[in-house]
């Protein structure tokens, strides 16, 4: 007789969440994406970064920020002395939204409804990790975290109260930096992003 084999229960609340999220059908984005890309990092990280949604590379790898934007993010973290391994890194939306074009999959911005449906996971991640500082990278993350439409430029670059003794810090999304065609402007924006991350490094 064989004993019924059961998968071991998840070891932590975050592991349980990750497992639940892997089967998420809260919005239609799961239909075409390869897999859920849940956040990753230490369960008790003090610092949490929130992006928009996984891109093509993240969708295939099942990990956040591993493509071109992730490489820029990693490099800049290194320049300001933040070890990514001590941060929890996640996205506002956990499935890749795209439009097929030939062999390529072109990123499409998630709509308000998709962000709203996925907010549930983000809130659970914050609840489980309990970071002291949450960093919104870009307008989608800002909207998901605050539930409000605000101009990024109005709130960028300083600590804002976020409830529960937590702070929110707002900066641009690294993908935005990769899309600036004018090299002089791109360099200026890059410097500002690096300064933002340096401010975060000094606060954590
Ligand atoms: N852009 C994001 O917002 N998140 C990722 O994980 C990758 C690219």
Describe the structure.
With 204 residues, this protein is α/β, with parallel strands linked by helices. It has helices at residues 13-21, 56-61, 68-80, 112-129, 139-146, 152-155, 174-178, 183-203; strands at residues 47-51, 87-91, 98-101, 104-107, 133-137, 160-161, 167-171. Helices cover 41% and strands 15% of the residues. The strands form 2 sheets. A 5-stranded mixed β-sheet has the order 2-1-5-7-6, with helices on both faces. Strands 3-4 form a two-stranded antiparallel ribbon. α4 (112-129) packs across α5. The longest helix is centred in the last third of the chain and has 21 residues, at 183-203. It is globular and about 65 Å long. Residues 51-55, 58, 64-65, 67, 69-70, 91, 175 line the site of uracil (URA). Uracil (URA) binds at residues 51-55, 58, 64-65, 67, 69-70, 91, 175.
The whole-angstrom Rg is 17 Å
pLDDT averaged over residues = 95
Elements, N to C (H/E):
HEHHEEEHEHHEEHH
Query: Quick one: biggest sheet?
Result: 5 strands, mixed
Helix fraction?
40-55%
Shape from CA axes? Answer: globular
The helix count comes to 8
Small molecules bound in the structure, each named once: uracil
* SS-derived structural category: alpha/beta
Number of strands: 7
Distance between the termini: 55 Å
Low-confidence stretches: none
Range of strand content? 5-15%
The spatial strand order of the largest sheet comes to: 2-1-5-7-6
Write the layout of secondary structure elements.
Elements: H1 13-21, E1 47-51, H2 56-61, H3 68-80, E2 87-91, E3 98-101, E4 104-107, H4 112-129, E5 133-137, H5 139-146, H6 152-155, E6 160-161, E7 167-171, H7 174-178, H8 183-203
Parallel strand pairs: 1-2, 1-5, 5-7
Antiparallel strand pairs: 3-4, 6-7
């Amino acid at each position: 007789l064989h004993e019924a084999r059961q998968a071991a229960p998840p070891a932590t609340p975050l592991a349980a969440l990750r497992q639940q999220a892997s089967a998420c059908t809260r919005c239609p984005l799961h239909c075409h994406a390869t897999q859920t890309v849940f956040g990753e990092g230490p369960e008790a990280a003090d610092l949490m970064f929130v992006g928009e949604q996984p891109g093509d590379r993240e969708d295939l790898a099942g990990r956040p920020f591993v493509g071109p934007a992730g490489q820029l993010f990693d490099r800049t973290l290194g320049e300001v002395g933040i070890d990514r391994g001590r941060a929890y890194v996640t996205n506002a939306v956990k499935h890749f939204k795209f439009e097929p074009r030939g062999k390529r999959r072109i990123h499409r911005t998630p709509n308000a409804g998709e962000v709203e449906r996925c907010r549930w996971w983000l809130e659970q991640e914050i609840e489980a990790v309990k970071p002291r500082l949450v960093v919104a990278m870009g307008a989608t993350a800002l909207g998901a975290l605050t539930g409000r439409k605000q101009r990024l430029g109005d709130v960028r670059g300083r600590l804002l109260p976020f409830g529960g003794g937590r702070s929110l810090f707002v900066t641009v999304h690294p993908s935005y930096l990769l899309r600036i065609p004018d090299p002089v402007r791109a360099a200026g924006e890059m410097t500002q992003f690096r300064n933002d991350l340096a401010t975060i490094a000094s606060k954590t």
